[in-house]
Write a structure and sequence with these properties.
The structure holds two protein chains of two kinds.
Chain A: H1 5-18, E1 52-53, E2 55-57, E3 60-62, E4 68-72, E5 79-84, H2 88-106, H3 111-127, H4 129-140, H5 144-165, E6 183-187, H6 193-206, E7 210-214, H7 221-232, E8 240-242, H8 247-255, E9 261-265, H9 268-277, E10 284-288, E11 294-297, H10 303-315, E12 327-331, H11 335-347, H12 367-382, E13 386-389, E14 404-407, H13 414-417, E15 424-430, H14 433-441, E16 448-452, H15 456-465, E17 470-473, E18 492-493
Parallel strand pairs in A: 1-5, 6-7, 6-9, 7-8, 9-10, 11-12, 11-16, 12-15, 14-15, 16-17
Antiparallel strand pairs in A: 2-3, 4-5, 10-18, 13-14
Helix pairs in contact in A: 2-8, 3-5, 4-5, 5-6, 10-11
Chain B: H1 3-8, H2 11-43, H3 45-54, H4 63-74, E1 118-122, E2 128-133, H5 137-156, H6 159-175, H7 177-188, H8 192-210, H9 216-220, E3 222-223, E4 230-238, E5 241-245, H10 251-263, E6 268-274, H11 278-289, E7 298-303, H12 305-314, E8 320-322, H13 329-339, E9 345-347, H14 362-366, E10 368-376
Parallel strand pairs in B: 5-6, 5-8, 6-7, 8-9
Antiparallel strand pairs in B: 1-2, 3-4, 4-10
Helix pairs in contact in B: 2-3, 4-7, 5-12, 6-8, 7-8, 8-10, 12-13
The chains are: A alpha/beta, B alpha/beta.
Chain lengths: 508, 379
């Protein structure tokens, strides 16, 4: 493979640089011309964004006492709104409201009634799905195609799924009458803001817990919209509380002595801190942390499907996915062919306006995240890996990173070991299934993995030996509320989804 | 005493020297007994209380009584046989027992501690029973290495095979039932009947867990009805190398109750058996070594939890901890903090564990991962 790359990639960059057409449409060498796309922007008129937002505590919006932060549209750097920063005292109030709601209302309510509230919430999400999809896209930078087709349907599905569990807990395999834990402190990330909220709140409420949830500081808007929706559902005050803020607010929440349960999705580094903070307490903890998933392509895999799978594994949500297939392990005999097809496909990715319905790759969520990606990519080049980025014109404002693939990557390179959390793929090769498994497992993480092969027995054998919580075979990045999700090793502990996901919120 | 010195000693002086040495020994034993008693009462008042309930003898033990206790306890179930009376009429001598050297169990072998250290294990009455190996942090690292090496084979064995081996262990335990009962009685100071009941409960619990080997996947696994054309299956898998801190009491039943649920699903274990629990623990190791259990699946360290736990909790090739035997809440919290470095799964100690209660699946599930596999469905 090494024989054809240097000239090839240099030419590709030139192609991109001189292409006078739109930012995304271009003709790739060796393929028929890709037709031009007319812009197809989704209207943002459906969304009303207030200039400022308060905290949601005890069913009411109350001013924060810890100051304020701004959230920006990462595609334009436009300030969208100001939101309150919950101080330790605010967190205290939120936990107290959740405790009162737990003791006086929610834990005493029959499961069948809790179920009906959750069904209501699921319906309200469906009814306001388009609005929430646009709001999510604006606040996060992810393409509307994803929020509309992936995030929002899954959010509603999660509430539907767990609504049905609320009055069936005695059949879930946790004893005849499993009890809730109490108040759940939940901290969620910015990559799937509303979906992670659903993963946290739906099972917690179904099991009879009340929650205090902190959304990420770059993406608070859909969580605050969800608060509004709780009131529309007439959810008893204090059952759901939303406190916005940054790391300090989250730290105060997880360390709060009134929290009986801590659930966190985010970086392994912060997860470690949380595990230390709760040590010696009686708090139950579940952590869904980072990953460095291997996506293994065998020589018998159908090439076009595998390429689509690789694209989906690393460029879905700009690669800002904990389970992204950021390490492509390709069998040596098909490396050249696969990489050529991959580059050809990457040239057709449309990078740009997240609200354009044709956009494949949107904006990076924040300047800080873009800086992190840029730094790791620079490290990849400095360590001797070979970089190729899809030729595309990136908008002048906002946070953007072109889809990028590294070849000649060694297992010791930082780009092969550290989670980049961006649209950057590292390619390694293998000769035998044993080598593929060994390389795939050669990471402290263990969240997900992919296998591409037409041979069923090989797929099952490899899937069995991969030390990862989710294995996608001949597919990638699929999610469902009935399907348990979570990691091995330093990717955290506990499972979200299905009957397994109930355990995190029951005293068992 | 050298031969030369002995040769020069007159009979009377010899007797005096013997008396002196006997009283010295007795004093040493008494002070050792006091030390142990003090240590025990400081570390774990409930256990001491239990021991005291069964102990009708005075607290201070004479050398003679101590020797009698040793004979009845350490030499185990059968009373010492005696040689036939000599022809010249001298009374029969009791047979001198062959004592066992208690060592560690690492990678299927029985080495001494690399540190060369040992500690005195005494009966609940303070009588000398044996010198157990005082495992070091290096022994702990060696144990983790052995456990990691054994993980692939053990977790990759069929569930039926694991169940067969675990059941075989129960068979071997049964054969040594009386030996375990004698050891339990010696180290815990409980009655023979109570000790026998504990040994039998331990064997029965082992049999119960053995049967779970090929059932846990069906009970904990799921077929998930995802909204799309995908086959979607979740199944439990072992988490890896588990460091288990066994409770000191009940010595055998506690150890079996924490060890069996760890290995039945395919995990490998590094077990720290504290204090006097070392004796039944190492006898259990002899059972494991003769039951077709691959070497390294279970590794047993004896010594002090406070010394062995911190390096195991911080070890980056350990996947999970069971803190059952960690009685100091401060140490438990410190271990949990150390475990956070590589996100070990931590099972916290229970404040007042009831070992006789139905254990349920709790301990098995604590050391399982769930793996979910997706595959498209289509023609």
């Amino acid at each position: 493979m090494a024989q054809r790359k240097p000239g090839h990639s240099a030419r590709a960059r030139q192609d991109g640089g001189t292409d006078p057409g739109s930012a995304v449409a271009r003709s790739a060498p060796g393929t028929a011309d890709v037709f031009e796309y007319a812009p197809a922007p989704e209207s943002r008129a459906i969304v009303r964004i207030s200039p400022s937002y308060d905290l949601f505590i005890g069913g009411r919006f109350v001013p924060a006492t810890g100051g304020a932060l701004k959230t920006v549209n990462p595609a334009t750097e436009e300030v969208l709104a100001e939101f309150g920063v919950a101080s330790a005292a605010d967190v205290d109030r939120a936990v107290a409201a959740a405790r009162a709601a737990y003791e006086q209302v929610w834990s005493r309510m029959p499961g069948s009634e809790r179920a009906k509230y959750l069904f209501r919430i699921a319906r309200l999400i469906q009814e306001r799905s388009r609005e929430l999809a646009v709001l999510e896209s604006i606040d996060n930078g992810k393409p509307i195609r994803e929020t509309r087709d992936v995030d929002l349907p899954l959010v509603a599905a999660h509430f539907f799924h767990y609504a049905g569990w609320a009055d069936k807990l005695s059949h879930a395999g946790y004893g005849p009458d499993p009890r809730p834990l109490g108040v759940a402190a939940q901290v969620i990330p910015w990559n799937f803001p509303l979906l992670m909220l659903a993963w946290k709140i739906a099972p917690a409420l179904a099991c009879g817990n009340t929650v205090v949830l902190k959304p990420a500081e770059t993406t608070p808007l859909t969580a605050l919209a969800f608060a509004e929706l709780c009131n529309q559902a007439d959810l008893p005050p204090g059952v759901v509380n939303i406190v916005t803020g940054a790391g300090e607010t989250g730290a105060a929440l997880v360390a709060h002595p009134g929290a009986d349960k801590v659930a966190f999705t985010g970086s392994t580094q912060v997860g470690r801190g949380i595990a230390r903070a709760v040590a010696g307490s009686r708090k139950k903890v579940t952590l869904e942390l980072g990953g460095k998933a291997a996506n293994i392509v065998f020589d018998d895999a159908p090439l076009d499907q595998a390429v689509e799978g690789v694209i989906d594994s690393i460029f879905f949500n700009q690669g800002q996915v904990c389970c992204a297939g950021s390490r492509l392990l390709v069998q040596e005999s098909i490396e050249a062919e696969l990489l050529e097809a991959l580059r050809r496909r990457m040239r057709t990715l449309r990078v740009g306006d997240p609200l354009d319905k044709n956009t494949d790759v949107g904006a990076i969520n924040s300047a800080a995240q873009l800086a992190k990606i840029t730094e790791l990519v620079a490290a990849g080049e400095a360590e001797g890996a070979e970089r190729w980025s899809a030729p595309c014109e990136l908008p002048g404002t906002g946070y953007w990173f072109a889809p990028t693939v590294f070849t000649n990557v060694s297992a010791t390179h930082r780009i092969a070991r550290e989670e980049i959390f961006g649209p950057v793929l590292s390619v390694l090769t293998f000769r035998t299934p044993e080598e593929a498994v060994a390389k795939a497992n050669n990471t402290p993480y263990g969240l997900s993995a992919g296998v591409w092969t037409e041979k069923g027995s090989r797929m099952l054998a490899v899937a069995k030996r991969l030390r990862a919580g989710v294995v996608w075979a001949n597919t990638f990045n699929k999610f469902d509320p009935s399907s348990p999700f979570g990691g091995y090793r330093e990717s955290g502990y506990g499972r979200e989804g299905g009957a397994h996901g109930l355990e995190a919120y029951l005293d068992v | 005493m050298s031969d030369k010195a002995r040769g020069k000693t007159a009979p009377a002086a010899k007797q005096a020297a013997a008396r002196k040495s006997a009283s010295k020994q007795s004093a040493a034993k008494q002070s050792a007994a006091k030390r142990t008693a003090a240590k025990q009462s400081a570390a774990k008042p409930p256990a001491e209380k239990i021991a005291a309930e069964h102990d009708t003898r005075p607290a201070t033990v004479s050398a003679q009584e101590a020797r009698r206790a040793e004979t009845s306890a350490a030499v185990a179930e059968t009373p010492p046989s005696t040689s036939p009376p000599e022809e010249d009429g001298t009374p029969p001598r009791p047979r001198l027992a062959v004592r066992k050297t208690y060592k560690l169990y690492l990678g299927g072998a029985f080495p001494r501690s690399e540190s060369g250290r040992s500690y005195e294990v005494t009966s609940a009455q303070g009588a000398f029973l044996a010198n157990a190996a005082l495992a070091s942090r290096k022994d702990a690292r060696d144990a983790v290495k052995a456990a990691r090496s054994a993980f692939g084979g053990w977790s990759g064995a069929t569930a039926y095979n694991r169940g067969q081996i675990l059941y075989r262990i129960a068979e071997m335990l049964e054969g040594r039932r009386d030996q375990f009962a004698a050891e339990i009685a010696a180290v815990e100071g409980v009655t023979q009947a109570s000790a026998l009941a504990q040994a039998e409960a331990a064997i029965d619990r082992w049999v119960w867990y053995a049967g779970w080997a090929d059932k846990i996947s069906q009970v904990r696994g799921t077929v998930n009805p995802v909204a799309g054309p995908y086959w979607n299956v979740s199944s439990p898998e072992p988490t890896g190398v588990v460091a288990v801190f066994a409770p000191e009491r009940p010595s055998l039943f506690g150890l079996v109750s924490v060890l069996a649920p760890v290995i039945v699903s395919g995990n490998t274990a590094v077990v720290a058996a504290p204090g006097a629990a070392a004796l039944p623990a190492i006898t259990l190791a002899e059972v494991l070594a003769t039951s077709d259990l691959p070497g390294g699946v279970v590794n047993i360290l004896t010594g002090r939890i406070a010394e062995l736990a911190p390096p195991l909790a911080a070890h980056l090739d350990v996947n999970a901890l069971d803190l059952a035997g960690v009685e100091d809440p401060g140490l438990a919290a410190e271990l949990e903090r150390a475990a956070a470095q590589n996100l070990k799964r931590v099972r916290r100690p229970e404040p007042e564990p009831d070992w006789t209660a139905d254990p349920g699946l709790d301990r098995i599930v604590s050391f399982l991962e769930t793996k979910t596999v997706w595959h498209p469905v289509g023609v």
